[in-house]
Fold this protein.
Amino acid sequence: MFTIVFLSLHSAAHIRRLVKSIDVKYPVIIIENSQNFLLKEELEEKYKNVRVLIPEKNIGFSAGYNLGIKESKTDLVFLNSADVAFSSECLSQLEECVKNIKDFAIIGPTYHNNEIHKNYGFWDESKLNKNTDHETKIKYKVKEVDFIDNDFIIDKKQFINLGYFDENFFIYFETTDFCKKVRSVNKKIYACDKIKFSHFHSQSHDPKFSYQAALSRNWHYNWSKFYYFKKHINYFFALKKITPNFFRSIKNMIFYKLTKKKNKYNLHKAEFLGILYSILNKPASYRPYEKQ
């Protein structure tokens, strides 16, 4: 058995759909970052397996996942964004995997459309163990990978001395960083190619917040990119990686300022500021959706 955790930020429609589709035998924790107390009241009254936790402020992905993990009463925790869909078959197959495969720190399903984009990958495939005679691994085409990008189960017992997500990441690169930590101590990460789910990329919020979501994406993606490379390689390598983005954002800001396209200007300004804050070692302080 595992607890299912969802992160929610103006995601009420998705959360209602997801909770309705889940068997009541699974405990569900929702980290509601938009402080929707009416959603909390509605769901907790309707579903006895659901707890909605509302932080005092929007704590983002890393801190949100950490809160869900710490509040779960099971050793196994299934971490999800709100813009996903999975069937009861997917959950039962994952349950079979975690019951029979005992050596994982992280295990997850894969996208239905795996040909265009995978939610897992490798840093050095040659170092991974590809041979197995494990019945469940063969049944669900379970492969060892270096990272899973979205939607996976963790075994809390594997993290007693390791810690969870780096809360300096507000959003973006947090799962890559998390998996890198897991692989650095030679713990196992598995992707199950025959267990499928759907991910509706960047659609977790109410559509009316799409522009604010784009501002947040531009700001935080660049901040997190610089911080990730600074953390894992060094400051100067990170600076080299981000420099093209930095000068492109300045060029675009000038162009859209001159052409008086305010929304476009603000998008590139967000990109510029995310890079600038990271270069100056300032925290990822931008918070989307505060003006509604």
